[in-house]
Write a structure and sequence with these properties.
159 residues; mainly alpha
């Protein structure tokens, strides 16, 4: 009975005091459920009380963690030492030249970015008469139409 006269249920975390010396006995749980944060009893070390499966799992986890750290270190070193690849093929140089010729470097990009980025193309490709708009696809369309016309005329002359 408690001091207030109530019979409280016994908790495994707070065992009831007993006898004239008020000694308490620890709860008896199966060994797999006991968690001990104090030094092990009877001089046993933590590692020696573990099963073979637990020991193997701890070693495996340590090896995997070391492998992960090694891979991350290798990626970090490779990333820092690798210089970005530069494309020097004919197609890359042609596209780069087209982009640079489309820009107008005389314009301040902070004031008028559109003219800075597209001013060279606008100067080199004014809107032709008879068109309300003109762009790169219109230019390609006209070029393809001229090639098709040339091919059809050459086909007519051969017959």
């Amino acid at each position: 009975m408690s001091p207030r006269g109530l019979d409280l249920p016994q908790s495994p975390f707070h065992p009831r005091k007993e006898g004239p010396g008020l000694t308490s006995s620890p709860p008896h749980l199966p060994p797999s459920l006991q968690v001990n944060f104090r030094n092990p009893r009877n001089g046993q070390r933590c590692w020696s009380t573990r099963t073979q499966v637990e020991k193997r799992l701890v070693v495996l986890a340590a090896l995997l963690a070391a492998g992960l750290v090694a891979c991350l270190a290798a990626l970090g070193i490779q990333y820092r030492t690798r210089s970005p690849p530069v494309c020097l093929s004919e197609a890359c140089i042609s596209v780069t030249s087209s982009i640079l010729s489309s820009m107008d470097p005389t314009v301040d990009p902070c004031q008028d970015f559109f003219t800075y980025a597209c001013g060279g193309w606008i100067k080199a490709n004014p809107v032709p008469d008879g068109h309300s708009r003109w762009g790169t696809f219109s230019n390609l369309w006209e070029h393809n139409q001229a090639i098709i016309k040339h091919l059809l005329e050459a086909l007519m002359w051969t017959q």
